[in-house]
Each structure stands twice: as C-alpha cells, then as structure tokens.
Amino acid sequence: RFTIPTGLPSIPAPDYMIVIISSSNLDPPQYPGSTITIDSISFIGTTQGFPNPSFENWVANSSEEPDNWNTLNFASTQTISATKSISSHTGTYAIRIETIATSFGDTLGLITNGNFGNNGSEGGMQVFANPSKITGYYKYTAVGLDTAIAAGATYANGVEVDSSIVKLPPTNTYTYFECPFTYNNFPLADTLNIVFASGNFDDSANYFGLGSVLYIDDISVVYL
C-alpha cells in the first residue's frame, strides 16, 4: 500500500485532478525494463470514488504507426490523429494528421521523427552534415484562421545549433514547401529533429483547434 498526499486545502475544492503513474523517473536518467503494477486506487478524505480504480474496464484502441516517426495516436482512445492516406503526392500513401482532443487535455495534431519528452519533441535522425533545408509537399484544410506547421531543429552533442519553423497556409492541392536553416558549417550537427503539426501551436491567437487536417508527403533533407 502507498499513499500520496495532495496538499490541497478543503476550500476551494478542485473540479478535476490529473493523476500520472510512471514506471520510470520523468527526468533522465531512465532505463529500459523498469515495471510497476498498480491496483485498487482510492481517495482518502472524501466520499468521491476514483474512476476505474482497479483497471477492470478497458477500451480497445488500435492504429498504425509510420516507420521512423512518432505520433499522438497513443494519446487518444477516440479519434486517431495520424492515419495512413491513399491521397498521396507520389507513391501509394501519405500521412494525414488531424488536430484532436488528446486524453491528457491538449488539443494537438503532430508527428515527429524524434520522441515526445518533457519539453516537447526530442531526439531525431542522425546526420553527418549540416542540413540546409527540409522540403516536401503538403495540402491542408484549416478550421478558422488556423495554419499548419513545419519545423526542424539541429543539435550537436545535445545542444541546439539552429531551428526553423514555417507556417503552412490552407491549400486543396499538394504544394511544395521548404523549411530552411540559416547557419553555414560550424558546429557540425549530429541530429535533426523534424515536426509537422496540423495546428498553429506557435500562435495561440489564431489556433482554432479541433478539425484542421494536414497531409504530408515526399519529405527530403538538403545538406550543405
């Protein structure tokens, strides 16, 4: 048995609570293979019950993931954010990204070639020369004045070297885009992180949330 004090006063009473249970420290270092088993959660000091406290109720959730990319599909049991689409620029498939309400309270739709960390997208693909730009093709249906986002960041030994963010306006047909970097040749980057988002998280004033849809295909990296 374990207990965790909330430190909350009796007045004012909160109207919701977020509970996070992790098998690892949320900050590095983290080691693969750690496990935790949880059962029979309850509140002390209130008659209100904890939802699904013994994990008896489950909802089936399945989705496909694009190789070498991470999506928000893990974060929803209702609408899937990233799906495989036959509406492609070339080849058989493209990726379709929709802005959804995630199970952890955010309204997002994004993919990354890195990992989801405490401060957003982390890591990425290994590079052996400094990227000049990221290119590709997109089409986009926006809700309100929303725009999509293409972004990239380069790192050398874990330190950010350069970053670029481009807003992608609505278009009904596949349209070429570039996400350029600005430095020349030093220091030499070793990692490139790429993010595509179906909502304008860079400008919350024009970020209208649910329902914007972004298609991405034929991504390339141009090196100096």
Label this structure with key terms.
224 residues, single chain, mainly beta, 38% strand, 15 strands
pLDDT under 50 segments (min length 5)? Answer: none
Mean pLDDT: 88
Topology as a string of helices (H) and strands (E):
EEEEEEEEEEEEEEE
Helix content: under 10%
Portion of residues in beta strands equals: 35-45%
Largest sheet: 6 strands, antiparallel
The global form is globular
Number of helical elements: 0
The count of DSSP E runs of length 2 or more, i.e. the number of strands, is 15
By helix and strand content, what is the structural category? mainly beta
Distance between the termini: 58 Å
Rg: 21 Å
Describe, in plain words, how this protein is organized in 3D.
The protein is mostly beta strands and 224 residues long. The chain is built from no helices and 15 strands. It has strands at 70-71, 82-85, 94-98, 100-101, 107-108, 110-112, 115-117, 120-122, 125-126, 131-141, 148-156, 159-168, 171-180, 191-197, 213-223. Strands 1, 6, 9, 11, 12 and 14 form a six-stranded antiparallel β-sheet that branches. A five-stranded antiparallel β-sheet has the order 2-3-15-10-13, with no helix packed on it. Strand 11 and strand 12 (159-168) form a beta hairpin.
